[in-house]
Amino acid sequence: VSFAYVNAVDLPWLMQTQLEMSNPDMTEEQREQAVQASLALSPTVYGAIGAGSTAVALLLVIFLTALYYTIVSFFSHDGVRLKQWFALLCWCTLPAVLGALAQLVYVLSTDARFMLQDEINPLSFGNLLSIDRTGATIVQRILLGIDTTPLWALVLSVLGYQAFTGSSIVKAVAVVLGPIVL
Questions:
Q1: How far apart are CA 33 and CA 173, in angstroms?
Q2: HEC-encoded secondary structure of 66-112
């Protein structure tokens, strides 16, 4: 998705827009210099960096979550091992894979030249409810960008934890959502 998006978007426009939103105190000249400096790399390099860093970050998050579940299992004597938690969490990311496929189809089937990154997800609440993001603050944009697939993955994680340990739904919710709440 990162690769397809970066190769479809108008990169100077994207850089200019992101700089305007994230750093409104920059002068036009400073923004132009930053945009020109960022264009030294090709879109292919940006896409490869995005794809690679996403894969590594996702693997790291899954592993750390599996390690957390393993520690909880050790103290509660559930007998579930790290590789079992890792496998469960990999299966729980299936909704994210389906969401990424939806994003990929959306990017490839629409004109994404002047589309911001938070607009490429057809499953986000902002897109599902057709809410205009014009003039929205950064917090509002984040809330509009919330997607249904992580919620689906959390439900699968809770149900998987409950099935693996034989615990109550309350304990499963507390263990799975505990780190997120903290």
A1: 49
A2: HHHHHHHHHHHCCCCCHHHHHHHHHHHCHHHHHHHHHHHHHHHHCCC
- Whether the CB-CB separation of 12 and 39 falls below 8 Å is answered with yes
For 97-150, the pLDDT digits (tens) are: 999 999 999 999 999 888 888 888 899 988 888 888 777 787 888 888 888 898
Give the separation between CA 4 and CA 90, rounded to whole angstroms.
Answer: 24
14: closest CA among 49, 48, 50, 38? 38
DSSP notation for the chain: -HHHHHHHS-HHHHHHHHHHHH-TTS-HHHHHHHHHHHTTS-HHHHHHHHHHHHHHHHHHHHHHHHHHHHHHHHHHT----HHHHHHHHHHHTHHHHHHHHHHHHHHHHS--TT--GGGS-TTBHHHHTT---TT--HHHHHHHT-BHHHHHHHHHHHHHHHHHH---HHHHHHHHHHHHH-
Q: What phi and psi values does residue 178 have, to the nearest 5 degrees?
A: -50, -55
Q: How many residues does the chain have?
A: 182
